[in-house]
Amino acid sequence: MAKEERLFLSGNEAVALAARRAGVALGAGYPGTPSTEILERFSDLGGCAQWSPNEKVAFEVALGAAFGGARAVVTMKHVGLNVAADPFFTAAYTGVSGALVVVSADDPGLASSQNEQDNRRYAVAAGVPMLEPADSQDAFDYFLAAIELSERWGLPVLLRMTTRVCHSKTVVWPRAAPSPPGVPHFERDIVGRVMIPKYARLAHRRLRRKLAEIAAWNETSPVNNLLAGDQALGLISSGIAFMHAREAAPQAAMLKLGLTYPLPLEQIRRFVAGVDRCLVIEEGEPYLVDALRAAGITVEGKPDVFRFDELNVSRVRKIMAGDVAPEAAAPAERPPQLCPGCPHRAVFETLSKLQCIVAGDIGCYTLGVLPPFEALDTCVCMGASIGVGLGLRHVLPAAQARRVVSVIGDSTFVHSGLTGLVEMIYNPPATGHVLVILDNNTTAMTGLQEHPGTGRTLDHRPTGRVVFEDVARALGLNRVFVVDPLADRAAFEKLIVEGLAAGEPSVVIVRRPCLLIAEKHRERQQAATERSGTE
Amino acid sequence: MTDQVTNVIIAGLGGQGVLTAADILAEAAFRAGREVKKGELHGMSQRGGSVTSDVRFGVRVFSPMVTAGEADYLVVLAAEQVANNRIWLKAGGTLIAPETVDESVLPDKRTLNVALLGVLSVYLDLGVTLWQDAIRGHQAPRFHEANLQSFDLGRAAGRRARGA
Predict the structure, then answer these.
(1) Looking at domain A343-521, what is its CATH homologous superfamily?
(2) Any CB–CB contact under 8 A between A169 and chain B?
């Protein structure tokens, strides 16, 4: 075999390469910054990858593959794990026959998210082992370690990344996967896989036994690294925070934790005993500090002000110095905007003009909240526009209730809007409701990914298409309309005015492709032509 | 080669090629055998907002992010983005502003990012062929000629700026 190549990869690319090397049979996910590129790259490398309607379905598909003895990966952004939390918790009980790696890409600092939740807490809550890479080399190595752990203990494993690890590029020396994947086959295990209370009680105890074994293994596991240094200051860290800490205090003794659940508490206890002062440098929630203190290990944590936003070298220096003086404001930035000519612009101008109360959702169109539109009144999570809009309609005085509109994008509608639509039919407000589906034929915000409404797969091949107006009509709605707001803005406005006055639920599908996909389609065709020309 | 890390910030607006410029610089340093880290934020930045990318290289690099006030070089693609990004630059650091290159002589205005890398290249100890290979590696073949030409124009402007 030729000498391994030295590569320069983002953390996401490194995960994709490791998944390919490990013979992962199926990758499923839902697009979400900063996780999206993992499955795209995995597919480019020849892996079998798919976008599912949402993270819960993606998780279940990957879990099924792992029940079948295959190696599988499911990818999502941090808030995606909220959607997939139901199978996540119970998959820890059932375990897997093959391997299941769950990639959660957290977004401390909210570069592109609605919250900065720290998903390390999920590992503890569900009892799922967790690895935290600090750079692309770790991302590659830890993915392979996650496969090994998953197969050895028959458990799903959480690979918890963050924006800076996902998107930073660093040098990677890839290595071969330790063992080839097994051949998928079905083995019946009713007690192990059917979680009725009787069997789940057994499974819960089995999970705790496995976690105790992993904790013992982790005391000497190769994924935690002790870096010798001056004993005056010891630092305990994990993930990207380790890199900032190493740079801020190169002289300090360091314990870099790779497998951060279950923790190697005895190794940590010895490290802390060997230094004069021990400080935990972690980004986000005080997860490590809380866990160590609960175990009776005395460590210093960071002042609460550093719980917010991401860390960097300068902030780590402040943590070490106990400096809680107000931080300098970040440089002024020009905020993102809806593209000139974007069809969403016409929609928000009209809703503003009609003084609608708009329950919004997650996507490019969330930018409708910024000037000059200022046309969104709520935005919470994927799909919330429909439920929130209905709730407002139920309680507001009729004059206000009649102005409430829910606005949701096409990909988001498939993700979490379908059940909201059913709610609208089942529990209609007395004043009716208006649901506007912004169908621009792509998942624009995350970089133009396909979804079930586009009728194309992750790698842009034709497949079955979910037609929104057909779904709405089949569910029994009478008032379902499709309109292009750029071709006929007056017609769009008329539909909204009539919908607000109708007193029964209406769906208005605003259909106009995103400006950026036309260009993207050309690029994709060009790339395909160039590829076929060189092969 | 010293133990010193070189810190570069590339800044501009979404759509200007900030991320591509950072990719090219990082690739050139990578090809030179250095340890390199490149940091950036994707996502909302695609919608015309401010974009910055950090490139750090040397013998050993830890954080992928340049610390405010510690950038050796600040390359800015949009004039309106110079003032707000100055905080990155260290005292005595080098600002490479868009007007360093005369845009009207470029074969294509979209190659301003690569022209400004040409200016930067005059200050860095990375071979010209490494830069050229990196440019080819990050552009479609039909854009190679214009980009390589802009890189050369940028180098010439850089030599003038450095001499001045």
Answers:
(1) Thiamin diphosphate (ThDP)-binding fold, Pyr/PP domains (3.40.50.970)
(2) yes
